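Collaborator request, handled under Task 6.
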Amino acid sequence: MALLAEEISTDKHVSDFIDTLQMYHEKHSHDGVEGLEAKLIYSGRHSELSLALRKKELFTRLLAKYSMFDSAQQILAYLLSKMEQDFRSYVLPNLDGGSPADIDHLFGQYLIEPCANEIKSGVFCLNAAIAAGMAYWLAEQCYIRWHA
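Structure tokens returned to the collaborator:
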């Protein structure tokens, strides 16, 4: 975060995404259910769509604002890759047969809360809404989902 603050104060921009962040910008569907809206509808979560889109937009704005700085890209790539890996390790194995409440609990416990608690101060800090937006953004890119 200190390096990011320095890059911002000296207006040191980069023009390309680092490889890990670039990977997450490329959609990767495993089952043909592409995009956030389709994933939520497919898993019976249509009522969550409006709030999910607003939270995804929170993260999208943060990503756009800070992605021109190398340190921010490193931080965001770390958080995205951690969230995706934790999804694969702790949530995905429990999707089949899990109730919506159980799945929500897993998302909160393993994805949202750890991410929101990762950065509490500095140039940008995360909260549960932005962390949820990150999860929704990853769902839009087809890296996480609510169905088995």
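The cover message to the collaborator said: "The chain has seven helices and no strands. The chain has a mean pLDDT of 93. Please let us know whether this matches your experimental observations."
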